[in-house]
Amino acid sequence: MSEPRTLGELKRSPFSEERSKRRRVKDELRENLMARLSERGRKEIFPGIVGYDDTVMPQLINALLSRHNFILLGLRGQAKSRILRALAGLLDPRLPYVEGCEINDSPYEPICRRCRELIAEKGDATPIAWLTPEQRYVEKLATPDVTIADLIGDIDPIKAARGGHHLASEHTVHYGLLPRANRGIFAINELPDLAGKIQVGLFNIMQEGDVQIKGYPVRLPLDVALVFSANPEDYTARGKIITPLKDRIGSEIRTHYPATVEEGIAITTQEAWERRGGLPLSVPKFVREVIERIAFAAREDKKIDKRSGVSQRLPISALENVISSAEQRALRNREKMVVPRISDIYGAMPAITGKLELEYEGEMRGADNVARELIRTAVARTFDSYFTGANMQQIVQWFDLGGEIKLADSAAATEVFSTLKNIQGLHEKLAALGVQTKDIVEEQVAAAEFVLEGLYAHKRIGRSEERVFTAGEKAPKRVEPEPRPDQPFRGRRSFN
Predict the structure, then answer these.
(1) Largest CA distance in the chain
(2) Is pTM beyond 0.90 here?
(3) N or C end of the chain: which has fewer CB within 10 A?
(4) Are 310 and 304 in contact (CB under 8 A)?
(5) Parts of the chain belonging to CATH 3.40.50.300
């Protein structure tokens, strides 16, 4: 069945029902959400949002069922924008409006002068067009230079001159983003960055449901669901949400970072670009865990600013860089599979250091040193999750007896594997990582290197910057030599 194209056809279609005529956006969101909640077997209300099932989602659902305007408060990289954009999925798949209307006027209850005059002139022949859910979602990033004209609208003298209208006529209005979101969702990201006097301009639409433009008595009873996002006020010094506006926001919902490593891995795997084509790719589970634990360790580290937070974009970008590092090595050595190693994580430091806001102590240490410490901590914690209580003495003893091995970042897997075979007891430990002796060489090398990096992280063996693994540092205490009688004393003496 084709969609109605005129007002007359619309009146004879299912959209002629009274419910469809007068249902407001917040009622539409509420009713569609209720239908999803009642569907048997449906678990995800908002697909792609991971880790919020027991915390953020119940509060968000309550806000929508209550028909509230709401705000999401949280640090960077906590999926606030993703959640707001997912709200469009609760809108009807299509919605009729008067064709050509800048503010998506309802054919049944037009509010702009142009549409009222058009319907009065053409009646049932008035042309009708259709809105998709994506067209009904309007988003604005708040910046200090945003004006009332950007949000609400202004008088356009050029439009008045071309049409021969008086400046006080509604035909001269240039509508802002908020009226253009009529019958839809209007989202403002980083609300505190909006100047206080501009925030005042939102009062009427939130409380009385209308706006006025440039002081003229042009009343527009808009139908808009307003949603916002912001960092907590104690983080941003750029501005604040004024108290009267906060009072008009129905619900304040706090977001958070992933609570578990598994949740973090699920988010990173979902968001990272892994499907590249070319060589087959296999990312070991322990590599994913190390990458995720870097972010967890950074959020606990005193050298990193907790008010700024450590975005979930850190492990996403790091994983992409790690895969690229492994891909580069595989291509240069003409290997058949791309398998990242722990050394590739050190090669991905440019994707880590740029996402850390350091405290004074961290600035003194340097971003690279802080990142290396985080990687080492993450390796140690991941190593413990696989080898708690495992006896590694045979491997450690091999190094203590003078064993030495160099694992170059760019070395081919076959070359490294031939060297690793000499380490007694190493390959027997790979089974705990799910790697068997019959598996491909690239996977065995990645697992073996992880074991060595884990022992190095626990300071049981040593490693140089050139990635030469040796015995752990067990330097004897330095003993000052006694001065010979025939030589002058060059040390320090104390006289008591």
Answers:
(1) 120
(2) no
(3) C
(4) yes
(5) 7-254
